[in-house]
Amino acid sequence: MKTIIAACSQNLSGSRASLQTALRTLLAVPWPSQRDVGSALQLLAVLQWVLSFLLLGIVSLLVLIYLLFTSLWLIPVLYLAWIIFDWDTPEKGGRRLPCLRRWTVWKHFRDYFPVKLVKTHDLSPRHNYIIGSHPHGILCVGAFCNFITGSTGFEELFPGIHSFLTTLAGNFRLPVFREYLMSGGLFPVTRRAIGYLLSQKGTGNAVAIVIGGAAESLSCRPGVTTLILKNRKGFVRMALRHGAFLVPSFSFGENDLFRQVVFEEGSWMRSVQRRFQKMIGFAPCLFYGRGITSCRSRGFLPYARPITTVVGEPVPVPKVENPSRELVDQYHELYIRALLKLFNENKTKYGLSESDELHIL
Fold first, then answer.
1. Sorting pLDDT into bands at 50, 70 and 90, what band is 292?
2. What H or E segment, with its residue span, contains residue 134?
3. Is the CB of residue 282 less than 8 Å from the CB of residue 174?
4. Residues near 110 by Cβ (< 8 Å), separated by ≥ 6?
5. Phi/psi at 201 (nearest 5 deg)?
6. What are phi and psi of 207, to 5 degrees?
7. Are 187 and 193 in contact (CB under 8 A)?
8. Distance between CA 317 and CA 328 in Å, rounded?
9. From residue 51, how far is each of 56, 139, 273 by CA, in Å?
10. Distance (Å, rounded) from C-alpha 271 to C-alpha 274?
11. What is the CA radius of gyration of the chain?
12. Burial environment of residue 333 by CB neighbours within 10 A (0 to 12, 13 to 18, 19 or more)
């Protein structure tokens, strides 16, 4: 009996010593610093955004199709009926949720790069505006962060102005994804949607349009400042019809977020990209960024490069119900001049050299 008690005591002592050793080892491990925690939150914020934009629509569609062949078939059927009933909502003001705009996640998203918004001139709330956003880049990070989230203080810099961002109309045909886009304040880049924002919501509205679109993303790479703009005049015609002032904006650093395999004009791969773009609205870019675990590995996350979006001087535009081609050309030229002025006055402040030029195609 005494032997058993002695053995138990010895085991208990050994267990206590092992526990103390484990605790000492645990306490010796350095706890993550506030900076490490902040970096992790920033990475997670960017990860959820990239996954949402790249996968949410397709995954939701596949899940609903799968559910059609299960006992839960009523869910996709009811949702399809809802989409049919709600079909025109994206072009009639949408369903913006102010709480989503103020989501804390967007502050971590902003700080990852970081993204900064710079104001050069006031915007009067007595007018409406069409903001031209340049360049497109791969995922329009600058436009999204500045004109959709409240993280960079757009409404504080421009009191009385409410910003909206337009994107491909096809995105609003994808289930669940359409609700996500509308809740954030995005709208399809159609005449009807833009016209509604500029005519049915009073004044003080600023509709941001990434004018270069998918075609511009095909030429996106670090050190290149080429815009697709010469033949993009629909936004000017819309501005004239509604008397909306034209405002140029440029996101310095947007093209530095990813590396892209750029195919030369005339190559068969470029032709495939062009045809794909015409059929479905966006261009299949071959790009890469950093990995999830390390900035030295390759992956689908953007590199942490600073983005500075500078909003320029508004170009006053009269309201003309049926503007002539000559009038559209005139204000299109005025807009290009304002954009070139904005670029040249700010390029050396935000990472470019004096010799860098803005090429407009």
1. confident
2. strand 129-134
3. no
4. 145, 149, 151, 152
5. -120, 25
6. -100, 115
7. yes
8. 10
9. 7, 12, 22
10. 5
11. 26
12. exposed
Instruction: Report the C-alpha gap between 21 and 298 in whole angstroms.
Output: 40
Residue 332 to residue 230: CA distance in whole angstroms: 8
List the 307-311 sheet strands across, edge first: 115-119, 307-311, 245-252, 129-134, 205-210, 162-167, 186-188
Extract the tokens encoding 6.
């002695």
CB count in 10 Å sphere of residue 197: 23
Contact 321, 241 (CB under 8 A): yes
Cβ partners under 8 Å of residue 211, min gap 6: 132, 133, 134, 227, 228, 229, 232, 235
* CA gap 95, 91 in Å, rounded: 10
In this prediction, residue 7 has a pLDDT band, given cuts at 50, 70 and 90, of very low
- Which helix (H) or strand (E) is 2 found in, with range? helix 2-28
* CA 65 to mean position of chain CA atoms: 28
**pLDDT tens, 41-71?**
999 999 999 999 889 999 999 999 999 999 9
218 vs 282, residue with greater confidence:
218
Whether residue 180 contacts residue 159, with contact meaning beta carbons closer than 8 Å, is answered with: no
Enter the tokens of residue 114: 């970081």
pTM: 0.86
Per-residue confidence (pLDDT) for residue 18, from 0 to 100? 67
Task: Please provide the distance, in angstroms rounded to a whole number, between the alpha carbons at the two ends of the chain.
Answer: 95
| Burial track 269-285 (b if 16+ CB lie within 10 A, e otherwise) | eeeebeeebeeeebbeb
Q: Report the distance separating Cα 175 and Cα 76, nearest Å.
A: 10
For 42, phi and psi rounded to 5 degrees? -65, -45
* pLDDT above 90: residue 359: no
Residue pair 158/206 in contact (Cβ under 8 Å)? The answer is: yes
